[in-house]
Amino acid sequence: MNSPADTGSLPAAGGAEPSTDYAALRRDPEYAELNRALLDLVPVGSGPAVLDLGCGDGAVSEQLLLRDPAMSLTAVDPDPALLDAARARLGDRIRFAVGDAASVSRLFPPDAFDTVVLANCVHLVPDLGEALGAIGRVLTGGGRLVFNSAFYSGAESAADLPAYAELVGTARRLARRRGLPPARSATGRPSGLRRSAADYQTALAAGGFTGVVTTERVFTLGRRFLAALCSTPMFATAALPGIDRHTAAELLAEALEQQYERAPFTITRRCVYFSATKP
């Protein structure tokens, strides 16, 4: 991954505009730092076959190609609209398929990939054991699985919880003033948000992976990153359940501006990284 000062990008195919749901986050330099530590775990050279699983609009796929143009890259996501955005930007440099983590063993033959990458999305996987089993079947012997998450039990600093509560509380008050009362709780909130780093280690061992290396890093995140995060469907719908995700994102952005005007702040957040090998 390039540093914030030189974040390169491949030209969009056909000049098409990418999806706006994740565009702001993709451009954020602090998000680039989160990804760089993950991409450093991906072997480079010899034209490896790599699967970017949960690729979204192709932010990490793009960086993988910039780091190793010779790789054979396949990108998979359950959202066809995000795949369309990735395809518009990256064109025929990548093979695309619609699917989720549990479906990869049906989409691809055994031993199809040297490396599988799940960037910033493993917390959205509902059945981790099923997903790891499917991933293990499509990895070659000695192949590597790498993934990360900044959304897990223990990621937040206790000192920052009041700032999160204030942000969501202000956004909810703004919603009520517009006649848009949020639902009491988020139905379908990803169960993976409750997993701990130890839970992932246990699941990897149960899935037969070896050589597991776990690293946690602490990041200081500022206003730009928080604004980008508020615009994502996962954060917006979890914070303001029952409200259209685009409207929810607008309300969160307004709440963040008000909060920052009262007192500028940053938050700290942990991100956990895993690398594991298929025997």
- SSE sequence, one letter per element: HHEHEHEHEHEHHEHHHE
How would a crystallographer describe the biggest sheet? 7 strands, mixed
By DSSP, the count of extended strands is 7
Cα Rg: 19 Å
**Overall mean pLDDT score?**
88
- The CA-CA distance between the termini, in Å, is 28 Å
| Order of the strands making up the biggest sheet | 3-2-1-4-5-7-6
What fraction of residues sit in β-strands? 15-25%
Account of the 3D structure:
This protein is of the alpha/beta class and 279 residues long. The protein has helices spanning 23-27, 29-39, 59-67, 80-90, 104-107, 128-138, 161-177, 197-206, 223-230, 233-239, 245-262; strands at 49-53, 72-77, 95-98, 113-118, 139-149, 210-221, 267-277. It has a seven-stranded mixed β-sheet, with helices on both faces. Helix 7 (161-177) crosses helix 11 and helix 9 packs antiparallel against helix 11 (245-262). The two termini are 28 Å apart. 39% of the residues are buried. Mean pLDDT is 88; it is low at 1-19.
Keywords:
279 residues; alpha/beta; seven-stranded mixed β-sheet; 11 helices; 40% helix; globular
Give a quick precis of the structure.
The protein has helices spanning 23-27, 29-39, 59-67, 80-90, 104-107, 128-138, 161-177, 197-206, 223-230, 233-239, 245-262; strands spanning 49-53, 72-77, 95-98, 113-118, 139-149, 210-221, 267-277.
Blueprint (SSEs and pairs):
Elements: H1 23-27, H2 29-39, E1 49-53, H3 59-67, E2 72-77, H4 80-90, E3 95-98, H5 104-107, E4 113-118, H6 128-138, E5 139-149, H7 161-177, H8 197-206, E6 210-221, H9 223-230, H10 233-239, H11 245-262, E7 267-277
Parallel strand pairs: 1-2, 1-4, 2-3, 4-5
Antiparallel strand pairs: 5-7, 6-7
Helix pairs in contact: 7-11, 9-11, 10-11
